[in-house]
Amino acid sequence: MFEMRLKALAKINLGLDVLRRREDGYHEVKMVMQTIGLYDKITLKRIKGPGVRVKTNLFYLPENENNLVYQAAKLLMDEFDIQEGVFIELQKFIPVAAGMAGGSSDAAAVLYGMNRMFHLQLSKEELMQRGVKIGADVPYCVLRGTALAEGIGEKLTVLPPMPECKVLVAKPAVSVSTKFVYENLKLEDHIEHPNIDGLVENIKIKNIRGIAKHMGNVLESVTIPNYPVIAQIKEEMIQGGALNAMMSGSGPTVFGLFEDVTLAEQVYQKLREGTLAKQVFLTGIYLGGRK
Question: Is 74 a catalytic residue?
Answer without folding.
Answer: no
